[in-house]
Amino acid sequence: MDEYHSSSDNEDEIQNRQNGRRRSSLDFIQVKNETKEESLDQTSPATYRRHHKKRLVKRNTIAEFGLQHSPSGSTLNLVADQKEKKSFLTKFMDKKHRSREISKLEDVLRNMRHTEFKDSNLSSYKEVHWSELIASSDKQMDHLEISEIERKRREAVWELFKSELTFLVDHLMVLKHVFMEPMKKVQVENHLMFAEPQDLFGNLDELCFVSYTFCKDFISALLAHMSPTEFGGTEVLLNAIQKLTIHSGNGEVYHNYCLNYSNALNYLETLRQKDDFAEFEKWCQHDPRCNRLQLTDLLVAPMQHWTKLPLLIGNIRKYTLNQEEQSQLTYSLQTIEKSLGKLQDKMKWLQNFERVQEIQKQIVWPAVGELEPRVFIPEFMKSTLSKQPCEKLLESHKRQLLYEGHLTLVEGAKTTDMYAFLFDDILLLTKAKKSTRKKISVAEMNSGNLKCQPDGATLLVYRQPIALDRFSIHEVGSSDAAGEIYE
Fold first, then answer.
1. Rounded Cα–Cα distance for residues 253 and 205 (Å)
2. DSSP helix/strand/coil, 293
3. What are the pLDDT digits (tens) for 30-86?
């Protein structure tokens, strides 16, 4: 029993000693920490902030610190940075993809076989003079005695043929075999699929057929009816011109090309924004057959050639002495000039139609009540007139725009700057919301060389359209007008 109590007391004493050591160690740690904090309190504020910053970093991870202590704007900035990185990566991948596509296109162009104009016999006449043809047909004649006016007539006839042949070989066939046919071939290889040859080259194949047929028929007739005393007679010339008129549909083939010309140029500028098309065009222009001509130079050639034809025929008529032959040439010349007149009318109509459509998109039509606030509108008509009935007034393809420009409207003592459109049946007054105007003299205004059109401005209709029979126009001379007016 005594042994038991003594052993228990020994165990309690050992336990108390261990607890005492733990308490003393804890007290030592606590005293040490308090002493450290007291020392920190006595140090500078910067040292204190660094100490707490270390404790904060130890207590939290970087990710937790960003989530717990960052404001909402930082999260938005993080999202914006991610989007920017993604956009940069997308652009980088697109650029890399385009570079790879251009590289493939270059390989296709490098291995492409060129197509050529195959009638080398016809092309050879480009370097031949008409006198050489006669000399080769009759070797026994050493010298051909002809009058000066007859020589000039033959020169004019040969100039007509060579002009058509040069146009065919150096322009149409270059467009066809250097640009159009290679474009179709690379499209077979799945390149330049966004390009439409029809929109760029128009009816080029029809032009090639008309010009080639005219050259073949003309040179065949010249050779067939050639003799030492005759070359390029009027009958041969008239037959060739008549066939040209028939094959061209009285010039309609050229009309169709010319009407598409402005759209083709706009389409070309759109295509040139593509890197692969720019590379393709550059490759085409390295072809020696281009003879330093740009694609735009070749595209305008058919328009220039068709307008040049009456001058060549008129030059032949000038050196033709026979009155009956002159009358026949005059009739053929008038036929071609009439065709050119129709073409000019069509181009004017097309330009007018496109401009009127631009005006239609540019104009804003207020409601009738806003245009005429003093006009009484019955209650049952308000719903009908809430939408402007003249909103689609300019969509008629028959309406002609005669003049447009700035105008000053005087109402009592008040003056208002207007932009007026004078059509063949109405006068439309509008106000440009944004207009850049400069002062000009009356002499400059009367010269008629001014372009007074608010490019890209939104035009607000000022009044309902006025019929031309409702007002009169009086021309004001420079002596009666002010020294300066607004353009």
1. 10
2. coil
3. 444 444 444 444 445 555 455 544 444 444 444 444 444 444 455 555 556 666 655
Q: Specify the residue for token string 């009086």.
A: 474
- Interaxial angle between packed helices 295-318 and 323-362, expressed in degrees from 0 to 180 and rounded to the nearest 10: 150
Amino acid at residue number 192: L
CB 216 within 8 A of CB 122: yes
Asked whether the beta carbons of 234 and 325 are under 8 A apart, the reply is yes
Would you say the C-alpha torsion 438, 442, 446, 449 has a positive or negative sign?
negative
Residue among 228, 135, 210, 220 nearest 172 (CA): 210
Structure token digits, residue 146: 């002809």
Tallying the residues shown for the chain, one arrives at: 487
pTM recorded for the entire structure: 0.68
CB 483 within 8 A of CB 444: no
Measured CA to CA, the distance from residue 352 to residue 452 in angstroms comes to: 16
Which residues does 105 contact at the CB level (< 8 Å), separation at least 6? Answer: 186, 191, 192, 276, 279, 280
Report pLDDT digits (tens) over 338-370: 999 999 999 999 999 989 988 888 888 877 666
Enter the tokens of residue 175. Answer: 């467009």
